[in-house]
Amino acid sequence: MTLQYLLPVALILSACSVQSQSQKGPVPAVVEVPSRESQVQFETYVDGLDEPWGFVFTGDDHMLITEKKGDLRIFADGKLIGTPVANIPTVNSGGQGGLMDVALDPDYPDNKWVYLSFSHPLEGSSGPSMTKIVRGRIVNGAWISGQTLFQADSEDYVDTGFHYGSRITFDDAGRLYFSIGDRGLKEQAQDLSLPNGKVHRINRDGSIPEDNPFVGQENAAPTIYSYGNRNPQGLIWHPASGELWSTEHGPRGGDELNLIESGKNYGWPDISYGINYNGTILTEYTALPGMEQPASHWTPSIAVCGLDVYTGDMFPEWKGRLLVGSLAYESLRLVEVKDGKYLGESEILKAEGRIRDVTTGPDGAIYVALPDSIIRMTPAVD
Ligand SMILES: [Ca+2]
Fold first, then answer.
1. pTM of the entire predicted model
2. Domain assignment of residue 341, yes or no
3. What's the CA-to-centroid distance between 382 and ligand 1, angstroms?
C-alpha cells in the first residue's frame, strides 16, 4: 500500500506549497491550563531512587522500577529492596540512554513475563546503541529466561545519545507497541527501512503481526506501525476507547499529543510546530498532505514524558482521561480526549520535580516518578 501512497505524496508536496501555506496552524497550541492542584494531596511513596524512568505495579504495594543508570529495583510490601535485580541486560546509560520502560504481560499473574526497553550497546556499555525490547522473569531477585523480542540490525545502531523513545504498551489483543525516537537523526524518521523515529508493533513473543501496515513491503521494516515520530516518551493503549495515544517531544516548541494509527506518517521532520533549539527555522510547514496533524501541541514545549489513562475510582470524574507528565514544566496534566479529539486539559501537580512517568495504581491513586522518588496522589481532604 505504501509505495503507491508515498510517491503521489512526494509529487503533491512540490505542487501544493501555496495550498499548504493556508493550512498553517490548523491545530492551536495548548493555552488554557486551569489548575486543579487543590483537588489533590500527595505523599512520598518510594524514596531513595536514582532517576526512576519507568515503573509498574505487580500487586498492591509491589512494584518494579527502572533506574536510568541500569538497575531494576523491586518495591515489595511497601519497602524498596536494597539489591537491584541481578543479571538484567547491560545498558548504555550515556546521554538520554539507560534502562528505560518496564511493563507486565497482560497475563502476568499466569506467566510472570516482565518486559524491558533499554538502550542496547553493541559491545560493552558504550558506543553505538539502539532501543531494544526483551522479556524475562524475576525469580529470587534475578532475571531469568531472558528473550530478545526486538533488536535492530547492527548496522542501524548509532553513536548519538539522543531520543531512544522506549515506552511499551499492550492493546486488548495482547499485541506489544513500543516507540523508538529518531536518535537525533531526524531525516531517518521518514525512512521506512530504519527502526528510529517510529512506533512499532510486535506480538508478545517477538513475532510480527501479519496485519502490520508494512508487512511484505520492500525496504520497509515489518515491525513499523507508524512513522515520522520524533521522540515518543509517552505511549498508552486506552482500554475504554481502543485508541493508541502518544506524547512526543518536539524540538523547541511542538511537543505533540498524537492518536497513533496503523501506517500513518506523523510528519517529523517535514512538518512541526517547533523550531530549532538555536532559534532557526526547522521547517516552514506545520501541515502537508499525507501527514497527520497532532491532536494538540504544546508550544512552548513542556517536555512531555510518561503517559497513562486514569482508570481508578478515587477520582471518579477523571476516569478515561489521559495523565501527561512533563519534565521541563514539572507538571502533571489531566487531558480530556474523546473520539480521537483533544478537548482540553488542567494541571494537577506543579513544581515538585521533573516528571518521568505516571500510572494509575491498583488502589486508584495516581503515582508519579520524580527525580529520586515516586509519590502517591489522592483526593484532597477538606
Ligand atoms: Ca508530528
1. 0.93
2. yes
3. 42
| Residue 235: C-alpha distances to residues 82, 166, 306, 347 (Å) | 30, 9, 8, 20
**pLDDT tens track for 4-22:** 334 333 333 333 333 333 3
pLDDT (tens digit, 9 = 90+) per residue, 160-218?
Answer: 999 999 999 999 999 999 999 999 999 999 999 999 999 999 999 999 999 999 999 99
pLDDT in tens, 91-130: 999 999 999 999 999 999 999 999 999 999 999 999 999 9
How do the residues of the chain divide into helix, strand and coil, expressed in percent and rounded to 5?
10, 40, 50
Q: How far is the CA of 180 from the centre of ligand 1 (A)?
A: 14
Of 120, 163, 238, 297, which residue is the catalytic one? 163
- Please give the single-letter amino acid code of residue 158: V
| Catalytic residue flag (residue 163) | yes
Does 24 have pLDDT greater than 50? no
The alpha carbon of 87 and the centre of ligand 1 are apart by a number of angstroms equal to 38
- What is the whole-number distance in angstroms between the Cα of residue 260 and the centre of ligand 1? 10
CATH number for the domain harbouring residue 330? 2.120.10.30
DSSP 174-193: --EEEEE--TT-GGGGG-TT
Distance CA 131, CA 142 (A): 22
Q: What is the pLDDT, as a whole number, of residue 25?
A: 54
CA of 272 to the centre of ligand 1 (A): 6
Cβ neighbours for 332, distance < 8 A, ≥ 6 positions apart = 323, 324, 325, 326, 347, 348, 349, 350, 355, 358, 366, 368, 377
Task: Give the structural domain span for 242.
Answer: 39-45+121-130+152-379
Ligand 1 centre to CA of 294 (Å) is 6
How many whole angstroms separate alpha carbon 175 and alpha carbon 207? 10
- Residue 290 belongs to a domain: yes
